[in-house]
Amino acid sequence: MAPKTLRERAAELGMKAMGKLFEDPRRAEAIAAAIGGLQRAKQALDEAQEKALRAAGLVTREDFKGAGKRISALKRRVRELSEDLDQLIQQQKK
Description:
By secondary structure, the chain is mainly α. Helix content is 85%, strand content 0%. It has three helices and no strands.
């Protein structure tokens, strides 16, 4: 059998550490509660940041995401139209 890669060994050690960490149900509950609290705090911070940006008339992260999606859709449509135009040009040459 081939020796384990560094990534495989690190993943194995990480899994063992997580197993030990969550072995005690009370500790696991405390960790889960802490993670949940952090997630709620991050959500509140993100919402406050978005409100502040909107109040200042600045662009938010969601605005950028929406613009990126729209640009991607427009690029696809331009590519489709370009292909259609190429086909029409080829048909007229015949």
